[in-house]
Amino acid sequence: MFLAFRHRVDWAPFMTLAALIGYRSVAMAVVGTTERWRKKLLAVGIGLCAIGIVFSHYVLVLHKVWSAGVATEVRTNPLPVSPASPFLPAGK
Questions:
Q1: Cα separations (Å) of 88 from 35, 69, 84?
Q2: 11-36 mean pLDDT
Q3: pTM here?
Q4: Distance CA 10, CA 29 (A)
């Protein structure tokens, strides 16, 4: 689950280009559709954005719990929302 910053920088241009191509493809496909389908597509887009925001915050919590570079006091604070923690005894 580790991804170095160097790898993120390597993949960022490709992912940005892929997102733009995907957005353009969806925009071209929506031109000839009805208003009902446009509203559904808008709802799906907003839902995916919300899921992305929630997931990125959850990954931040996991980073704070598992990162060795974070102080122990900070690592123990988000324990209630962590799925597994190195600080919890087995069985709890």
A1: 52, 19, 8
A2: 87
A3: 0.58
A4: 30
